[in-house]
What we know:
The chain has helices at 4-17, 19-25, 43-59, 89-93, 158-164, 166-172, 186-193, 206-218, 245-256, and strands spanning 32-34, 40-42, 64-67, 71-73, 79-87, 100-107, 110-118, 123-128, 132-135, 138-140, 152-156, 178-182, 198-201, 222-225, 239-242. By secondary structure, the chain is of the alpha+beta class. It folds into 2 domains: 4-139, 2-Layer Sandwich (Fructose-1,6-Bisphosphatase, Chain A, domain 1); 148-256, D-Maltodextrin-Binding Protein, domain 2. A hairpin with a 4-residue loop joins β7 and β8 (123-128). 47% of the residues are buried.
Amino acid sequence: MTNLEELAQHAATMAKTIVPTALSHFRGELGVEFKSDESPVTQADKAVEADVRAYLSKHFPEHGIFGEEEGMDLKDSAHLWVIDPIDGTRSFLSGNPLFGFLLAHLIDGRVEIGVIGMPALGEVFIGVRGTGARLNDAPVSVSAQRDLSKSVLYVNEGDKIYHNHPEVFARLMQAGQTRRMAYDCYPHALLAMGHVDVVVDYDLQPYDYLAVSAVIEAAGGIMTDWSGAPLTLESDGRVVSAATPELHAQILKVLND
């Protein structure tokens, strides 16, 4: 059986392979559609996912694939690749370079490998369970911060949190030493690098958080749902990343008081 390192090399290759496709559409003329939930889909989303599916069909035809655009294939396979071709389509559409490419590999339902690719930044983060996280082949790790009051806290999807959970949003606005409002995967990547200590996120799908969780945990951090439960394909999309167990416990208290 192909080992995790070999699978990780394929994952890294895919993250690099899709860069020309993504950048060929970035800051150009985009054909845009809207899904039933009003989120935009671009030609770039579809083209990038098609690139990944073609690669997987060639190298791992027996593996399952779950992509944001085309759904699930071979769902009964022990191996499952989960794809978000353009994480942050609204960022992509507005010319913001902080859109990402996310790819996770699950074996028997457990996330073993995660990739966060940042095509416009030339960065590829990869995390493999038990072997650490790397950015462009250099090791990365989370910070040692243990005090929420001294932490750098990012709040993703703050407008949705404010609308749906105003009391949680109010508490978040009193937490941390430095607070930033953001979207998408890059704040979590910054946490894996040790620049950010806590990220609260909301209303995500499995293709938004599974790859990210693998990178965070391989870098030494913790990523769970808001109740502290491990993330799975069935999680409710409310997630939190933290550099240390102490920070994780403190931010869960903020979220659930």
